[in-house]
Amino acid sequence: MSRMAQRSVPVPPRLAERRAAGQEARPEARQESGEAAGKRSFLRMAAHELRTPLNSIIGFSEILSHELYGPLGAPQYREYAEIIRGSGLRMLRLVNQVLEMARLESGQMELDPRVEPLDAVFDDAITSVREEAAARDLRFACEIPSPVPAVLADAKAVRTVVVNLLQNAVAYAPECGEVRVSARAQGPLVIIEVENDGEGLDPEQLPRLMQPFEQGEHALTRRNQGAGLGWPIVRLLCEAMGGSFTVRTAPGEGLTASATLIRVG
């Protein structure tokens, strides 16, 4: 990691206000119902227990699909091993999202805002979804300035934000379609946008879809598996870093997801 990524900077007023508001609200937030607290505790426990067997399933299926210890015989076996691995990776992604959502809702996630260059963030995020995009013949169109603006953000959190936006766009873009990624500076902010030309959504559904475990009734959201955690996680992380998250969409007009973060420099 570069020196720039490691350098700490004073917390801007925008982020300081968000932190102060969060600290003031925290005592009230802790007075939640026993049912809600119990649900989050169960989700954390279940997610942790699922991780170990999932890692074994993913690891051994990868060994089989690459035939590391010799040929499997019929080619279908290798294909089936790849299906097992892909399903395991999707399940592990869901487990990680459940854990992250539980930590965010309980206020247990500690962020470390630092100067974070976005070029490496975009490279990592696009690499993480490239295999899934290739399977659906999708192409990426990037409109990212050089040099890419740096933001004040937690390194892991900002990557989670961009990866979730890309995963959502790839999942709902039509096959052989295009996912457009852009970043631009606007005053003290950096706006990251990920757009696809899919079927779009009814804007009236958006407030509900920003809540955990919600999915739209539109065919767009029914055709893909998931727990409806991607957008809520992005929203909470952006707000925790002093930014915001919005979505623009309409039926038949695709969807544009915008994450706003604090600009540095």
Could you characterize what this model shows?
This protein has 265 residues and is an alpha+beta fold. It has 2 domains: 34-106; 114-264, Histidine kinase-like ATPase, C-terminal domain (Heat Shock Protein 90, 2-Layer Sandwich), CATH 3.30.565. 53% of the residues lie in helices and 17% in strands. α4 crosses α9 (230-240) and α5 (118-135) runs parallel beside α6 (155-172). The longest helix is centred in the N-terminal third of the chain and has 32 residues, at 34-65. The model is unreliable at 1-8, 25-30 and 217-222 (pLDDT under 50).
What's the layout of helices and strands?
Elements: H1 3-6, H2 13-30, H3 34-65, H4 75-106, E1 114-117, H5 118-135, E2 139-143, E3 150-153, H6 155-172, E4 178-186, E5 189-196, H7 206-209, H8 219-222, H9 230-240, E6 244-249, E7 255-264
Helix pairs in contact: 3-4, 4-9, 5-6, 6-9
Short description:
With 265 residues, this protein is an alpha+beta fold.
The CATH architecture of the largest domain is: 2-Layer Sandwich
Going by CATH, the homologous superfamily of the largest domain would be Histidine kinase-like ATPase, C-terminal domain
* Number of alpha- plus pi-helical segments: 9
Quote the beta fraction. 15-25%
Low-confidence stretches: 1-8, 25-30, 217-222
Helix content: 40-55%
CATH topology-level fold name of the largest domain: Heat Shock Protein 90
Rg over CA atoms, rounded to whole Å, is 20 Å
Overall number of structural domains: 2
CATH class label of the largest domain: Alpha Beta
* Number of E-state strands: 7
Q: Would you tell me the structural class of the helices and strands?
A: alpha+beta
* Intertermini distance: 18 Å
Topology as a string of helices (H) and strands (E): HHHHEHEEHEEHHHEE
